[in-house]
What we know:
- By secondary structure, the protein is of the alpha+beta class.
- 46% of the residues lie in helices and 14% in strands.
- Helix 2 runs antiparallel to helix 4 (104-131) and helix 2 packs parallel to helix 5.
- The chain is globular and about 50 Å long.
Amino acid sequence: LPLAALAAPSPASGRPLLTEAAGHNPVGFFAALVRCLLPPLFALLDLGVALEAHGQNTLVVLRAGRPVRLLYRDIGGVRLHPGRLRRAGVEPPDLHGALRTDDPEELRTKLVAAVLSTVVGELVAVLGREYGTEPGVLWRIVAGTVRAARLDRTDAAALFGPYLPVKALTAMRLAGQPLDDIWARVPNPLAGLR
């Protein structure tokens, strides 16, 4: 199911579907989901590929109620960094349009705004609201997963920096070029957890 569906109300109970998946072990479910979600996305980032892994683009496969696999369904928001690809031994094809970026911050922002600021942030909020789970407990799980991931040194430092990017969708839609990304910054719950 799409990750965004985890926050949607269940037709059976009206509570978020996340509560049906997590059952009586919300922290364990969250930890399993984060371990399934973040390492492959960060490995790709290190290679020079940033997926815009927000809740509609990224699907999680559950087996016996546990996250076991991710599927990604939309390449429109993908960014590719030719320098990083070459460093990894991959000669990039000719890239046209918005796919190419030589800016490591743009590459990182495309991924981080979608997966950490949006998906993980929403799941932390739902678990706090539904179970009373302390957000710091959940963000420490995320921090441990980030520390263990294969990441470029500058990417790792940015992930634990004071702010995370988030898409400013209303500003984007009201701008002269409504499809161009506009970013805002929000306090980073990972700051200080490095």
